[in-house]
Design goal:
Distance between the termini: 14 Å
Structural class: mainly alpha
Strand content: under 5%
Largest sheet: none
Oligomer: single chain
Shape: elongated
Helix content: over 70%
Radius of gyration: 13 Å
Order of helices and strands: HH
Number of helices: 2
Number of domains: 1
Length: 52
Amino acid sequence: MLIGILGFFTLMAFIAAVVGIVRGEPGVTESLVLAGCLALLGLAVAVWRRVR
């Protein structure tokens, strides 16, 4: 369930980052949020694989 929630927020952060780049306003905040979400998602998947 945690992986699903993190996946959703990672997808939303990715969309926000892409929209900012397309509009010509790339922001550091959107990129850092996306990087943080990706790191948390990767960590959750790694822990899930180890436990499973």
